Amino acid sequence: MNSEKIIRIDMGNLKSSDHRVIENKPHVLCLGIESSCDETAAAIVDSNRNILSHIVYSQIPEHQKYGGVVPELAARAHILAIDTVIKQTLKSAGVTLKDMDVIAATAGPGLIGGVLVGWMTAVGIAQSLDKPLVAVNHLEAHALVPRLHAATANGADGDFVTFPYLLMLASGGHCQILLVRGVGRYDLIGQTLDDSAGEAFDKIAKMLGLEYPGGPVVDERARCGNPNRFVFPRPLCDKAGCDFSFSGIKTAARTFLDKYPAPHDDGFVNDFCASFQRTVVDCIVNRLDHAMQDKRVILAKPKHLVVAGGVAKNSAIRAAMEMLAQKYKMLFAAPPLNLCTDNGAMIAWAGIENFMCNRIVTAPIAPRPRWPLTEL
Ligand code: KG4
Ligand code: ZN
To answer: 13 falls in which pLDDT band (50, 70, 90)?
Structure first.
């Protein structure tokens, strides 16, 4: 590529301080594109909370033999898949690009090769058709997608998640407790000091010789296991504050498995998974309990306790957070399982929410491998 033709992009051009809701946008149709990790995904979502179509091309089989995502392979796979995924998404919704009111794509954080593929595709579509473009922060998409669906747990159907809400955001790359005040407005209440919860699930699975990604398989094995058979440390749980640490759990597991190496029978693996998962659940509940005492949270009086991100698929975490919500007389909400892991619908919904607040790209911007929610 000719370097003069590279679009130089300045994130400062995003209207980060402008949260004004634009009136007269009765119905908005948005194409969302996701490519920040190992899923090439696109979706068409409208402002009435309908998902018209939703396609996820998972690269997991391509990365499975390496036990994790290989960034270069991921970027190449995104290039090969993205046109087809977008075309199929449009076809299955029965719309064309011209019907879109706004184009949205992940602009970070994530594996930069993949992010560039999705983002530059979105820039091309938006520029050629003169459509508004939203640079979606992937974490914000996870954070906002619970608002796409009515709360279904102890919240009445139709009771949408409203700002402010207390969010446990747990994915493969991040583990944070956030007070979500509005679009682009996040208070970081606590975060991991080392590994994310998803990473811990993936690493424990790898140690046990289970397949990648580890979360779903550990969740499954844990259902048949005894959570009291093995005792793992619960880092920071005896300390004040809301931060997490998962690397100590991983080291304890490694040390133990070095002492009792494979082969392990099914009972051992199931009990190990159940005990590990119970530990993660206890850490999350402990930290959220502390978050409830945080002055910012007390003052904001959030109505909903929400979990989002890939780890939000975990049945034990969902159940424990629902009980915690009841304890604090809050409503529990979580996205449907297929919207927890990376997908295009969450990007399209974040695109609509940002567009409604006039947070659109008005000049070229640079995709960011790191992009904390507190920098929106
Ligand atoms: O949000 P996500 O799709 O990608 C990132 O943005 O990182 O999250 C992927 C993570 C992986 O670490 C995966 O193991 C974890 O979510 N995960 C789960 C479950 N399903 C996926 N972790 C625990 N239990 C699950 N059922
Ligand atoms: Zn994600």
So the answer is: very low
Alpha carbon of 328 to those of 124, 153, 162, 302: distances in Å? 47, 15, 17, 10
Pocket probe mutation, ligand 1, options 145, 201, 283, max atoms within 8 Å of Cβ: 201
The pair of structure tokens assigned to 72 is 């270069």
Global pTM exceeds 0.70: yes
pLDDT at 12 over 70: no
Classify strands 165-170 and 133-137 as parallel, antiparallel or unpaired.
Answer: unpaired
CA 329 from chain centre, in angstroms, equals 26
Nearest ligand 1 atom to the CA of 110 is: 6
Q: Report the C-alpha gap between 367 and 122 in whole angstroms.
A: 12
Which ligand 1 atom is the nearest neighbour of the CA of 313? 26
Cβ-based neighbour number of residue 197 at 10 Å: 29
Closest ligand to C-alpha of residue 308 is: 1
Cα–Cα dist 368/116, whole Å: 9
pLDDT band at 257 (very low <50, low <70, confident <90, very high): very high
Rounded-to-10 torsion of CA 245, 246, 248, 251: -160
pLDDT at site 26: 65
Which residues are paired to 67 by β-bridges? none
- What residues contact residue 281 under an 8 Å CB cut-off, 6+ apart? 316, 317, 320
Contact 165, 133 (CB under 8 A): no
Closest protein CA for atom 7 of ligand 1: 172
Mean pLDDT value across residues 107-116: 98
Res 4: pLDDT:
31
- Mean pLDDT for the stretch of residues 327-354: 97
Q: Name the residue of 56, 106, 171 whose CB sits within 8 Å of the most ligand 1 atoms, as the mutation to test its pocket.
A: 171
6 CA from centroid of ligand 1 (Å): 34
- 17 Cβ partners below 8 Å, 6+ apart? none
Element spanning 175, H or E: strand 175-182
